[in-house]
Amino acid sequence: MDYPRDPLWYKDAIIYETHVKAFRDSNGDGVGDFQGLLEKLPYLEDLGITCLWLLPFFPSPLRDDGYDIADYLGVNPSFGTVDDFRRLVEEAHRREIAVLIELVVNHTSDQHPWFQRARRAPKGSVERDFYVWSDTPERFKGARIIFTDTEKSNWTWDEVAGAWYWHRFFHHQPDLNFDNPRVLEALLQIMRHWLDMGIDGFRLDAIPYLVERDGTNCENLPETHAVIKQIRAYVEQHYPGRMLLAEANQWPADVRPYFGDGDECHMAFHFPVMPRIFMAIRREDSEPIVDIMRRTPEIPETCQWALFLRNHDELTLEMVTELERDYMVLAYARDPGMTLNVGIRRRLAPLVDNGRRRIQLLNSLLFSFPGTPILYYGDEIGMGDDIRRPDRDGVRTPMQWSNEPNAGFSTAETSKLYSLPITDPIYGYAAVNVEAQRADPSSMWHWVRNMIRLRKHFQVFGRGSMEFLPVANPKVIAYVRHWEDDTILCVANLSRHPQPVELDLSRWEGATPVEMLGFTPFPSIRNEPYVLTPNGYGFFWFELRGGH
Ligand SMILES: OC[C@H]1O[C@H](O[C@H]2O[C@H](CO)[C@@H](O)[C@H](O)[C@H]2O)[C@H](O)[C@@H](O)[C@@H]1O
Ligand SMILES: [Ca+2]
Hints:
Layout (H helix, E strand, L loop, with lengths): L14 E4 L1 H4 L10 H6 L1 H7 L3 E4 L27 H13 L3 E7 L8 H8 L12 E2 L20 E4 L4 E4 L14 H15 L5 E5 L16 H17 L4 E4 L5 H4 L11 E3 L3 H11 L3 H8 L9 E5 L6 E2 L5 H11 L6 E2 L2 E2 L3 H4 L4 H13 L3 E5 L57 H5 L5 H14 L2 H4 L1 E4 L7 E8 L2 E8 L7 E3 L7 E5 L4 E2 L8 E3 L6 E8 L2
Parallel strand pairs: 1-2, 1-14, 2-3, 3-7, 7-8, 8-9, 9-10, 10-14
Antiparallel strand pairs: 4-6, 5-6, 11-13, 12-13, 15-16, 16-17, 17-22, 18-21, 19-20, 19-22
Helix pairs in contact: 9-10, 9-11, 13-15
The structure holds ligand LLGJG24Q and calcium ion.
The site of calcium ion has 6 residues, from loops.
């Protein structure tokens, strides 16, 4: 990494999310590991990503794929050692790739020594108060249940403690108690441990739920924001330049406070825009996107949205109305096995029936909307999923490197793999793999790589303003990104057929729109409607050159 780097580096980043276990198994035991990931860094560098986000890799009983942490300072021995992790960070930095890791701040595993100690400690003691206990399951009635398919209550009775404990997620994930100042102290020490190893930031998991209060829905409380401000102040004081990314699955107005006045998180996921992008292309109507972007408040200059199409969880439908949820399920989850909790557990390519043009359109929106794009591993080659597997395991299968046994992911006997690779005729590794796509200049992989390169040339995408242009044809969306001397016009056709569109570009009269994928100059802008006819699911990115 080039130090001192731009403190706003995350605004220009291209983030790639992966599991250590799923990427590459270097020692043939069937589980991906740090060494395997390290060997694949040249691949990531070639793809062009600039930040690697690793899902939890800490010791864990793995009842929530590592989001149930039993030791925050170590690493799961199946993935390697702390030294292996340190080497990975060094090597990633040498290739100018930042490393983002998880801080599961809301809860631990029930196997964590803090919980084992707490349940045996006397009532009212500091040890006991690491978690949220009650003599009755009647408190905090206003809080919703998040994992609706498995949990019936946010309280579970603990025989050892003789009390109920609070959990917003699985019952084996007791919530930490931030009313106890020792909890935050302990977390800051954990942060220091990893920050000293050189990591570039944390994704703060499930942060709306840190503090509970009766008579509220126990989400986004002022006390929760007070905790986050302390976390940020600590980072600012001791590790300036490192980044905090808020995972707050909330409406834009409720996410906005997670940026504070630039004194909480540097970044936050924009959850509601994602399902609306899918809704818009299914309805062939720009309204869902324009509406949510108009409802998205301004954020402080140093802050940034994190944008994604898919991730390791289900495509969450928490931030849509009930009607919209029904529509999304009808449109994207025909089979009941495709839904999980309040969402759809499918990967990008199968969601759009492997439609190449739709995948490209979706990515064009991801790469041109205001924020930092996040790619989920395997989506760059159009990997598939398997809805017959439990929970979210169907979207967490081994990376498909080649058509060799086990998709080139591992030399272990197939029965020893942490998960079988996808083998169906359309998305299986014989048909979809990195090796074949790298050898094919027309492949999805080359297209994604090209888009990443293009985006990296134009800081306006990560830093600029966004303005929607009025368009009479609702099947087309047009917006302008502007930053310093750069103005980019994006036009996307959300329908499957060609569409005409007339744009009022008179503000840029005299400028020449240069189509950015082919560097083709289009007719100059005059004081008259500018007519375009994008193909079905087609899009244009134009750099507006010259003019006044
Ligand atoms: O650690 C528990 C969970 O935390 C994250 O959850 C988020 O994902 C949920 C969907 O699976 C979502 O509904 C919720 O609002 C989020 O906080 C994490 O990403 C999950 O993998 C994890 O199980
Ligand atoms: Ca291994």
